[in-house]
């Protein structure tokens, strides 16, 4: 009985230590990287293997759920999350998007060139410059949606530094893959709002449309999530510029074929924005990659799918963390 008590006490102590060092309450820092400055958080011990989280279109670093960040850190990672340029507390471009979004979207569908103020490769350069500024030589990358596209470029820019890739609900950008509905694209691009109240309703509409049909969303909760993001930062023109960067991107198939990094591709079977074939296509073009499809997952980190996502992602990260060693709590 005494041995059992000591064992339980030890586990409790280890859990407490992990919770203390993995708290997401750490301050948000800013670093200037040439003409761009990025806001970021570093969660966990500086000496632990670094895991960089790259968020998707219009998403702020707070859209990585705190409990997910904590679980990742508890595996022995130093988790770094940041706001991409043009969202959150990072740099916003000073001029409005020069291109008409609807016109450029039509050009994209027709396979014509699209103009954008910056590229996804530029955004990958931002992420790499952040790791340089933090003195991190090698690191793991987990990207979601547009963040997964940026992560692909990041692995191409620094093949000797990216130790593993985890790509969630993302795409290769190749022509011919299934496209979202016009209605969903309209919601995604509809960022102008005459008032705060209208902006929150629009964001709640978008969140609902990106969710799984198997989940009955609580409208009040969606509005609360929209309000938190709005109060932190609201930059609809920045989201349009990010969307132009996606539309201007050519197919990344040749880039994917050049990657030789341990890669996990995770996609949902109910994704309305990037249907499952996008994930299948990514995995098919990265040598040695692993594909995991999650039934019912759509294009949001909904509570019901956090555990299935972690169950898919954690074994991959464990396997490539310092030669497969377990976390030292």
TrEMBL record:
SUPFAM superfamilies for this protein: alpha/beta-Hydrolases
A GO molecular function held by the record: hydrolase activity
First and last residue of the signal peptide: 1-18
Keyword Ligase: no
InterPro entries referenced in this protein's UniProt entry, alphabetically: AB_hydrolase, AB_hydrolase_1, AB_hydrolase_fold
Keyword Hydrolase annotated: yes
Ranges for domain AB hydrolase-1: 49-299
Name of a matching Pfam family: Abhydrolase_1
Protein name: Alpha/beta fold hydrolase
Organism annotation: Pseudomonas benzenivorans
């Amino acid at each position: 009985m005494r041995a059992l008590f000591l064992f339980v006490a030890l586990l409790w102590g280890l859990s407490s230590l992990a919770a203390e060092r993995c708290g997401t309450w750490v301050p948000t820092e800013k670093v200037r990287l040439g003409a761009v400055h990025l806001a970021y958080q570093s969660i966990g011990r500086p000496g632990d293997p670094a895991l960089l989280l790259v968020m998707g279109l219009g998403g702020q670093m707070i859209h990585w759920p705190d409990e997910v960040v904590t679980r990742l850190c508890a595996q022995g990672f130093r988790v770094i999350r940041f706001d991409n340029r043009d969202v959150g507390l990072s740099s916003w471009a000073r001029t409005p998007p020069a291109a008409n979004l609807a016109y450029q979207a039509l050009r994209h569908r027709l396979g014509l060139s699209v103009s954008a103020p910056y590229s996804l490769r530029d955004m990958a350069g931002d992420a790499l410059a952040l790791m340089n500024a933090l003195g991190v030589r090698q690191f793991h990358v987990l990207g979601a949606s547009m963040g997964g596209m940026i992560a692909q470029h990041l692995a191409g820019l620094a093949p000797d530094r990216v130790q593993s890739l985890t790509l969630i609900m993302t795409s290769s950008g190749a022509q011919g893959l299934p496209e979202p509905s016009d209605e969903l694209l309209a919601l995604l691009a509809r960022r102008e709002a005459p008032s705060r109240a209208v902006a929150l309703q629009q964001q709640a509409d978008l969140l609902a449309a990106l969710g799984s049909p198997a989940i009955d969303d609580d409208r009040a909760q969606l509005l609360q999530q929209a309000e938190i993001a709005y109060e932190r930062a609201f930059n609809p023109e920045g989201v349009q510029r990010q969307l132009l960067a996606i539309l201007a991107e050519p197919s990344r198939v040749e880039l994917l074929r050049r990657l030789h990094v341990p890669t996990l591709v995770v996609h949902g079977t109910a994704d309305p924005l990037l249907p499952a074939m996008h994930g299948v296509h990514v995995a098919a073009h990265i040598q040695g990659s692993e594909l995991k499809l999650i039934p019912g997952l759509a294009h949001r980190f909904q509570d019901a799918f956090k555990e299935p996502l972690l169950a898919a992602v954690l074994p991959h990260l464990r396997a490539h963390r310092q030669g497969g060693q377990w976390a030292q709590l």
